[in-house]
Amino acid sequence: MNLRFYHYLFLPAILIFWSCSSGNPKLEEQIPMDEAALESGENLFDTHCSSCHGFEQDGIGPHLGGITREQSLDWLRRFIKNPTEVIESGDERAKAVFEQYNTYMPAFGYLEEQEIDAIIAYMHQFPAPEEVEGARADSILNPIPEAIPLSDLVVELEWISTIPASSENKPRTRIAKMDYHPVTGDLYIMDLRGKMYRMEGEETEVYLDMQQEMPEFINEPGLATGFGSFAFHPDFGNNGLFYTSHTEKPGTAPADFAYGDSIKSTLQWVVTEWKTGQPLQVPLEAETRELFRIDMVTGIHGMQELTFNPLAAKGDPDYGLLYIGVGDGGSVGAGHAWVPHGANQAWGAIFRIDPSGNNSSNGNYGIPTDNPFVGQEEALDEIYAHGFRNAHRITWTSDGKMLATNIGQGQIESLYIVQPGDDYGWPVREGPFVIEPEMDLNQVFPLPENDAEMGYIYPVAMYDHDEGNAISGGYEYQGSEIPELQGKYFFGDIVHGRLFYVETADLERGSQAPIYEWQVSYEGVSKPLSELSGSNRVDLRLARDRSGEMYLFTKADGKVYRMTGTLSEGL
């Protein structure tokens, strides 16, 4: 199996099982390990590594305990600076790692050698942990043996804009969500590093700069830290209400959802209401009001989704209620599996709140009376559904199904039909498989005979890590310009940029909808998104406009494309 592994990780860490020659000098004799070096290394590690790595348990990436005792300093330096170069040079160690994880890491050549050495010095303080329990006899090595078939669907793309670079280092942007203005239909797109833009043709205009508006705003550490999501209220044209999520340093203010001082908080996610008297104005001028904030153990799996039900009309019970995807904050990989486990915990859940109300514990928002856990002891009233590792995208099909994609651990990427009160099982289930959070998180096992008694809900579509690394949530095509796409839910894989779809008619609870792969063509030439974006890590996202037409965009190069038609024959 190919385990998921992100490009921001320090790939040498996974080589902890390979010995280097006994003749190498001790690391302490090669690089500084004084107090200043270790402090610098810890800060750099927190920024670049901690979201994905610990020193005892595998997380998104493997643990780093003992790595500096297993690899030479020269090899670690070279790989951190330019892993692709080392892999393509034919280095046997690098090739073996690439074959296992099936993805390249970016070059960290922008780090000074003394910074790389400081990170290595800090890691050297952590010996190899005691080995976790090995594979059980019933461990499933290949959960989904069948490969996803390639369909004959080829969709033509039209470039519409390139978002301004937000960093001199890769990726050039961290664009993560695009949506439309409910009055004008204009497209808006946000970059995790803090800016949100209105798009007009090829041009972009800053609508909101989170760094200017929120003095405590941070966009690191973590793959998804920063400006997480946004949502216009469906009646934005009249009430001027707009909602965002963003990250701040731990302890900036008391958290409404916390887990106690015994566990480190890496950052806080904050949900904010913005109210403007000029809903058509660019840039945004608005007053702000904090709804709530939540502590997170690490910088991953935060709050990447805010949305309203677009099918709800005024007068419907669901109208104006804000859905919020709250990840597990990396707590399970950090050894705190209880944090997202159960309806009494805020993490690993989808919230459903009424921003116009005030009956929450902090008085800043309302609790809908029809939320499934209202009035139940040992449960949070805000929760609509729970048991997610990271509910990445939430959407509704034209026939009313609420869908959520869930980014998995080491084996399964999932799509769920969401109903109130559902428990999807994390951290004791990954898709329709058992996971043991106190063991190796990358192993899965068969369901027990009495599984039906436990009440877990399983995916309506899924793929394993033979096919990709992290699901990129998508949308049902609801436009009219490309009839061949109607009735299909389009999604993909974040890392590799592979593109998938399912027929929405096949999405039924209790069964698995077939997944098909599709391709894109640009200027008449069919090519993978990795080639189109010029990066081995694509960072794929999808979007939909007011007319139901669809788009895709890539962080690597900041380019946004519109889906304009299909080709009758594959190229």
From TrEMBL:
It comes from Cyclobacterium lianum. Transmembrane segments: none annotated. One of its GO terms (molecular function) is metal ion binding. Keywords: Heme, Iron, Metal-binding. It comes from the Bacteria. Residues 36-127 form the Cytochrome c domain. This is Cytochrome c.
